[in-house]
Amino acid sequence: MAILSKTVTVEKYLAGVRVDSFLVKHFRSYTSWRILRMVAAGLVTIDGQVAATTQRVHPGQQVTIQLAEPPDLYIPPEPTPLEILFEDDSLLVINKPAGLIAHPTGEIPDGTLINAVQHYLDKQSTHPGLERPGIVHRLDRDTSGAMAICKEHLSHRLLSIQFQLGRISKSYLALVEGVLTDDQMVIDLPIGRAPGCSSALMSCRADALEAQASKTSLRVVERFPKHTLVEAKPRTGRMHQIRIHLATIGFPIVGDEFYLKGGEIRPLVWPESEREQVSSLINRQALHAAGLSFAHPLTNEWQDFQAPLPDDLRQAIELARHGQT
Asked: Which first-to-last residue range defines the signal peptide (predicted)?
């Protein structure tokens, strides 16, 4: 790999950190020991002067590194097609397809969204692997829709802060079982971990563990003979919030594997024949992250993104419109 020179400016919040720690923040595809080795080799300068391994950085300084070694935090790129809603030098917004989890896990080591994004970024780069995508928020594996992914450190940090402070606007479309009578409502029910279940399952029951206040605003978009299409806007950010809130009030999302009417939870292990009968309308939960809005982390301009409905959910809505169950 040709030696690439990169210069970054020290931000205020990183004042006083060691130069290697500062560089690890900005070059997330490198381990800390490899960065430190390049500092020790004299490949890093601060305002034009060769940096010592123990030197600390201060706001406004220019730190330049000669990337003489290849990245060693490697994400295998995979050519999964991506629908790009927006892109600039710091940010990607995609329309995530259902069936993709965000990151590799022990059970799913590849075939994830991050593998697909790494492939997309590598195709545009003269130094594949240098850009390491940063996922700020997640969607469930079987939820489709808008997701923001950052290309570099500062945008990732600033957008993460917006999420933590609740300054992001998100809207979802959900096809639910049953016909809601109220045009609008707010579900205000605490959510915690479901007792006696996997830590990945949630509950609104009184005995839920570590429950936190949770609110979801609902608006009826269209009523069908046996279903309702609703817009859901989470005011808080709990795991599975929309799914468990809708199920608890008696209107579970069509195709949901686990959350049943009244907030009951289907066992984690159940027959494949029964699994196939969850819904004839769609073979996954009918939930789509249709809208995502936030201030651009670097320009501060308000951005509003709309993710088109995928074909499977569009077809399910049409079937529900004609009364199919």
From this structure: none
Catalytic residue set: 140
Query: Cα dist. 281→97, 135, 232, 308, 322 in Å?
Result: 17, 31, 20, 19, 11
Note the residue count of the chain: 325
Amino acid type, 101: I
pLDDT digits over 159-195, tens only? 999 999 999 999 999 999 999 999 999 999 999 999 8
122-137 tens-digit pLDDT: 998 888 888 889 999 9
Closest CA to 143 of 105, 99, 202: 99
**Domains of the chain, start order:** 4-67 (3.10.290.10), 84-164 (3.30.2350.10), 169-321 (3.30.2350.10)
Q: Which residues contact 22 (CB under 8 A, 6 or more apart)?
A: 10, 14, 57, 63
Task: Name residues whose C-beta falls within 8 Å of residue 166's C-beta, 6 or more positions apart in sequence.
Answer: 235, 236, 237
User: What is the b/e burial string over 2-22, where b = at least 16 CB atoms within 10 angstroms of the residue's CB?
Assistant: eeeeeebebbeebeebbbbeb
Largest CA distance in the chain: 73
Buried b (16+ CB within 10 A) or exposed e, 302-322: ebebebebbebbeebbebbee
Question: The whole model's pTM is what?
Answer: 0.88
* Residue in 244, 287, 283 with CA at minimum distance from that of residue 266: 244
- pLDDT tens-digit profile of 228-252? 999 999 999 999 999 999 999 999 9
pLDDT greater than 90 at residue 276 = no
